[in-house]
Amino acid sequence: MATIKQIAAKAGVSAATVSRVLNNDLSLSVSEDTRGRIFRIAEELGYKPSRLRKLKQEEHLSRQQIGLLMWSTLEDERDDPYFSSIRRGIELRCEELGITIAKVMRGRGGTELAPCHGLDGLIVVGSLHVEDVLALYSNPERIVFVNHAEGPPSSDSVKLNFEAAMEEALSYLQALGHIRIAYAGGEETVHRLTVSTENETVTDSRRNRYRAFMSERGLYRSEYDLVTEWSSGGGYSGMRKLLDLNERPTACLMGSDPMAVGGLRALHEAGLEVPNDMSLIGFDDIEISAYLSPPLTTVRAYTELMGRTSVQLLLERIQGREAAIHATVNTSFIVRESCGPGM
């Protein structure tokens, strides 16, 4: 590899000038012709210091144009920040890397989406049918599925470790002495982008772990296993059903924090105290969770990290990685004041 002295000799300047130009010393008074000549000679002689490599990488990244396909609408994101946080992570990481998000598509708009094969890659957020995604963008090796039920093995994916999160939350309630534990959550839907095709419903991984955990201990009761909407309204109606049971549970784990907000309201309306009459756990750790009355014990989902990770995985594919990676992001269990001893 060439040295700074060799570059200086060929450029007809001092070694100090070459060093300062290659290190982008803006205080140096040198003509643009001289600056350009130094960079050109350095390139010709094969001089590749880390800064030149970085400049080339940044230039390459700035030419990349990716697409973002989300099932959720902006209204959905306002009601539940789970997916907006994933999107924010994607946008922030792209901004840091200089990658352009050239196209943003929303699958829930009710209209057919046009193919986008000219992109360098695609990030899909939410459970969208793989067949429909590939009809929009036909290269599965340049697609990253985020929070998806099951993508093709040749595509990268990022998901939360729902199973371990549920295990920790349920173990916590059991350690407090609870045996009558309910779970209220929505269904996992694999959405179709073609309006004439029916969506597919699969069992939510949180519910699967709940059923297994309770069954393994001989504690599972079907009346405590509620399917409701992924919303505050769904949490409210689900809690009302639990309170109408002859033997209500002493604890309830909700599939999302917005659902827990609705459940908490139903308990307050019934004149019941949390955690004295019912322990309550949410999922996601949205900002409002710490300011409820009482502050909500919940599972912290690192959704922004999921978004950032998806960009990193796609970048690696663009740069030539061949094997698919299926990344799982762990959670943290946040203990606050909404859980107490079992009765």
Automatic annotation (TrEMBL):
UniProt KW Transcription keyword: yes
Q: Name one GO molecular function term.
A: DNA-binding transcription factor activity
Task: For this UniProt record, give its keywords in alphabetical order, as a comma-separated list.
Answer: DNA-binding, Transcription, Transcription regulation
Describe the location of the HTH lacI-type domain by residue ranges. Answer: 2-57
**PROSITE patterns cross-referenced by the UniProt entry:** HTH_LACI_2 (PS50932)
Q: Which Pfam families match?
A: LacI (PF00356), Peripla_BP_3 (PF13377)
Q: Which InterPro entries match?
A: HTH_LacI, LacI/GalR-like_sensor, Lambda_DNA-bd_dom_sf, Peripla_BP_I
Keyword Metal-binding present in the record's keywords: the answer is: no
- Output this protein's name: Transcriptional regulator
Q: Which organism is it from?
A: Paenibacillus agaridevorans
